Task: structure prediction
Amino acid sequence: MKTVSVYLLCMAMLTGLVTFIAGCTPDRSGPTSGPPVQSAAASQKGDGDMPGKVKKSEAEWRAQLTEEEYRVLRKGGTEPPFSGKYVKWDQDGVFRCAACGHQLFATDAKFDSGTGWPSFWKPASEDSVTTRIDRGFFRNRTEVICGNCGSHLGHVFEDGPEPTGLRYCINSVALDFSESEKDEDK
Result:
């Protein structure tokens, strides 16, 4: 009997961990098809696993980014919910990729989704971000990637506000804020 209890406790803990790591979807009962995803050819603009125009070696990325930025931006990690500095941010300006400075989202597209991550209903421009299928953690999601350097930003879901119906759920650590719309590529 004790073995069964330990087994059930371990399974409950594992399920909780996978749910936490799986990310920022508050309601998993919605559609499973996901938002439109660019074709593999369209999202694979460069060499290696990360599409994009900026090409740096992993050693260069490690030297430029903090350990947490590298874990999220280059390895596809997720920061804990409600831990990022941009969750409740309300200043006017633009959000840029923390890795390369590319403009990603304007503050007029930001909204409070209640998920614990900054959420946007549209990117700043058509080439700001790209997407691809993320098959991690036992389910398919749509990953959001910087259109300039290919860094992981977060995921997009089809439960956002009109007019797009999309919710770009982005890690704060993947973002830098700027009051200027002028390009600040790093």
Notes: Residues 2-178 form a domain with the Metal Binding Protein, Guanine Nucleotide Exchange Factor; Chain A fold (CATH 2.170.150.20). Residues 8 and 14 are 10 Å apart (CA to CA). Helices lie at 2-22, 40-43, 58-64, 67-74.
